[in-house]
Amino acid sequence: MALSGHKPFHDLLTEAHTVVRYDRWGTGLSDRGRTDFAPERDIEILAELADHLKLRRLSLLGPSHGGPLAVAYAIRQPRRVSHLVLYGSRASALTSGGTWAALRELILANWPVAARSVAAVATRGSDPGDVDAFADLLIMAATPQTTVALQDAAIGTEMTGLLGDVAVPALVLHHRDDALVSADEAVQLAARIPDARLELVDGDRLFISVRTVERHLLNAYTKLGVRGRAQAISWWLRHEPGNRTA
Question: Buried b / exposed e across 179-190, counting CB within 10 Å, b at 16+?
């Protein structure tokens, strides 16, 4: 199993900072009954979370879909956000144009197969066990309908026009060989943010550690009331509308 940079990264952050991670509404252990996927709802939740935790100043790390959210919040609350860090926050060949249309249909038709396809790309170059673990995490993290709705909303969110209004110190961090988002896209993103710093990282890919995946899966299994992968897939087959048989 490939060594992960995920846990060491967060361990380093916790040495000098309080790190807050939360499940996006509709995913993980959050309320799964989400029907309003407007990006504005996610911004409101982030604002409410910061207020609830009484965070007078905070740094925002916005990976992938979290990028537009972090940018929008930083623009609205420049005195509250000390730093903005973006990772993988651009459209990719996997989730845009005709590729997304085909993948979208596959997700709704057969979520386990689609999840494994995405995982195979995201964990390219790692051990086969990483693909299985990542695919399981995707399946447990959200329903196929929610996954599609969130990606549709992300594609429809125009971040480019906002970037020039960012007035806080910004870092665009990117892996040079990222399989989902090209380094060129990261360069373009940094160029649109005033005085942004760009860091293209070489070396091992940034993986989620096996223990982290197992912990997330255990939490998901507990919420669904199942014991293991087989029962979780059986639960999905019983509860997803498109899978029900007479």
Answer: bbbbeebbeebb
Alpha carbons 226 and 52: distance in angstroms, whole number: 32
| Domains contained in the chain, CATH given | 6-243 (3.40.50.1820)
* 183, pLDDT greater than 60: yes
3-state secondary structure 101-161: HHHHHHHHHCHHHHHHHHHHHHCCCCCHHHHHHHHHHHHHHCCHHHHHHHHHHHHCCCCHH
Please give the span between the terminal C-alpha atoms of the chain, in angstroms, as a whole number: 42
Q: pLDDT grade, residue 71 (50/70/90)?
A: very high
Pairwise CA distance, residues 95 & 78, whole Å:
30
SS3 assignment, position 235: helix
Is 50 exceeded by the pLDDT of residue 3? no
Asked if 104 and 189 touch (Cβ cutoff 8 Å), the reply is no
95, 103 Cβ separation under 8 angstroms = yes
Alpha helices in the chain (DSSP H): 6-16, 39-52, 66-76, 97-109, 111-122, 128-141, 144-155, 160-163, 183-192, 210-224, 229-239
Residue 120 token pair: 């195979």
Question: Measured between alpha carbons, how far is 123 from 211 in angstroms, rounded to an integer?
Answer: 16
Question: Strand, helix or coil at 68?
Answer: helix
Q: Which residue, among 35, 37, 221, 23, has the nearest Cα to 139 in the 3D structure?
A: 221
User: Is residue 155 within 8 Å of 91, Cβ to Cβ?
Assistant: yes
14 vs 9, 169, 200, CA distance in Å? 9, 21, 23
DSSP lists the bridge partners of residue 87 as: 63, 173
